[in-house]
Amino acid sequence: MTPQVPLGECVPPSTPYAVSVSLPKWEDNVDYEKGKQRVLSRMVSGYPRFFIAKPIQGLVAHIKDRFALPNETAMLFPSLACARRCVAFIYDQAPKQRTPEAPEYSLPKPGQVRVVHCAFEPVNRRAAALDAMRNKLDAPVTIYCVLFQEDLFSLAKQYWQHTGNGISARLAAYCMRIARINEEFEQDTQPRCSPKAASFAAWRSNNASEKAATGLGGTLSSEEEAEADTYLEERFGRNFDPKYAAEMKAALRRRIAGAISEEKQQQRGVQLEHGVAGLCPKDVYLTATGMSAVFFAHQALLSMRHAKSVCFGFPYTDTLKILEKFGPGAYFLGHGEGADYEELERILELHSQEGEDPILAIFTECPSNPLLKTADVPRLHALAARYNVALVVDETIGSFPNVDVLSWADIVVSSLTKVFSGDSNVMGGSIVLNPNRPLYEHLRTAMSTAYEDLLWCEDAIFLERNSRDFMKRVPKINCNALAVAELLQASSKVSCVRYPKFTLPENYAKIMRPGSTTGYGGLLSVEFVGGEDASRLFYDHLYCCKGPSLGTNFTLVSPYTILAHFGELDWAAQFGVHSDLVRISVGLEPKHELLAMFQAALDAIPENKQ
């Protein structure tokens, strides 16, 4: 078992670009949401769409020193289109979110929120010799910086979080490394410490603290730091050189489409499909994060028809925010079962009448996060076909080795950060189009203008490496999760286990792939007879990694509702997402060790008094 990691440290430990952060006690999660310094001051990392990574913070400080006015701060993006959308979002949302109860947003003046372009390349040949990416990029790396008044930061952060299109930590680290190399070579002609040099000195100091916290040691030169990063990042296996990023992206698209690329199987001419005839790698689009996949799918659909969508079932928090804040809004059917099907049909019928704008799309998760509900996908497919709307399914939790949703959907989105990667050290996402649906050609055209490949080359390298054994890992995770779910289900201390085998299993059966290796995925949620007190005891006595994210190769647990909906607990509870829910992502540990650990945590809960 992975030992419990100290508060605020990277999860997994000693991983510079870790996706998760350790919050080992229930109260740590509550205090994190309350902004308590005892937690925030110890955080080395965090989930990348919620916590701005240290390399990105350093790059922001550097750019602010050069371009920002007093009382301004910045948000960084990998493309001009992303930056411009952030500017538009701030201007659109500031008046809507400024209320007597929340007056903190100042209304920006025209032109006050602006974009600055920053290019990063070595200043001379000597500097280029220290660039680990030399001869591997076609052009200088350009970062697009949105500058705005500090009191608008939370709005810009919302855009960053919802869309998942901010720059990656690896990209920021690369830019800072080039800036530091340049600064080191320019010092010979700048004997006095300029403000620019001072800003780098501060960044070096902060970076040294970060390296120490992640096991990298003290202050390093640019060359030593690059070598240390490479050593730590590659310690689990061999990476391809970044110059092969385009080939690795092609390999990822083939892998997601279902093509088997091992040499012997290629020689035999064997190719498996993703459950859909005619699917090929060109139907797969890679994105920087899972939420970026949802965002770009929605943007492509909006370019076809500017209309409302329907969110069917309680989704991961940012999916609903994308549908509500980008475009004309959405209907939310948060229970995702029972009468919601009739309400969905009523909405579709209403909008099909003359004078009404037809519904754009139905978005759903299969299964959903965190309630593990599976929608009746064939029924949604039939309704989408009848009313000529798109069906978009997020398969992240089920994962395509276990479920076939593309046969029914127009678009399938997924977070590659999760089980596809498994190592919890890189972000990524994918969009897959069904070539057999009537909307396919329209969607291909829409994606050609709405979609941008924002996946940084180094991140693509890690996604390719991590996912090589994806199909082998999933069956073991299925087996382990089923054993844990059955252990919890049998306990008198447990009031509810949410798991696809127990939660609407008849719907899951309709999309479950045949075969002995398929299963119900690695995610489950549990609630206890003793309510929050029992949840706290259970959580605090688990001897495993605890923090945000899921689909990791190691077991990872979190009080999901506290982290995702702390400011709207009563609202979430209306849909069965209760504040005492504990979400469990089961990993690859030996089954007997997992069962012993979870049994020990159950034993920490007092027996129920009858």
UniProtKB/TrEMBL annotation:
GO biological process, one term: transsulfuration
Cofactors, names only: pyridoxal 5'-phosphate
InterPro entries: Cys/Met-Metab_PyrdxlP-dep_enz, PyrdxlP-dep_Trfase, PyrdxlP-dep_Trfase_major, PyrdxlP-dep_Trfase_small, Trans-sulfuration_enzymes
Top-level lineage group: Eukaryota
Enzyme class at the top of the EC tree: transferase
Residues spanning the signal sequence: none
Molecular function in Gene Ontology: cystathionine gamma-synthase activity; pyridoxal phosphate binding
Protein name listed in UniProt: Cystathionine gamma-synthase
Pfam (any one): Cys_Met_Meta_PP
Listed EC numbers: 2.5.1.48
Keyword terms: Pyridoxal phosphate, Transferase
Organism: Coemansia spiralis
